[in-house]
Design a protein that fits this description.
about 70 residues, alpha+beta, elongated
Length: about 70
Amino acid sequence: MGIDFVTKTLQIDGETIRLQLWDTAGQERFRSLIPSYVRDADCCLIVIDVSCKSTFEGIDKWHDFVR
């Protein structure tokens, strides 16, 4: 499907925190799915392959997309 996720519940200073990590595929064909997954996010981490110049050059595009 182009998306994978994991959920983890943590106890930090007596508070329950639910962490959800979503791994979305970077291919163009999956791009339409991403807004629904980042809409209510408190944080978004953009991970790139530094050995592939095109992914490195796409950082600004991804940053604008998730904003």
